[in-house]
Amino acid sequence: MMALMWMAEWPPARHASDGTLSMSSNPLVDHHLLYAAVMIALAVASAGTVWGLGRIWARLPVVRDHRRLL
Length: 70
Fold this sequence. Notes:
Order of helices and strands: HHHHH
Number of strands: 0
Oligomer: single chain
């Protein structure tokens, strides 16, 4: 994860030559894109079932009747 965050902050220069903050970030890889990719990977891997409340949620009567809530 830290490598992805590093990519989003490339170039790593935080300060300009006069000492002011450069406020630079990578225009091609944004934090939002990285977080979206991580969230999609967790959803594809069914992380909610493995590490979360997915099993309990799936056993609720409302969810059993309406499978689209999974």
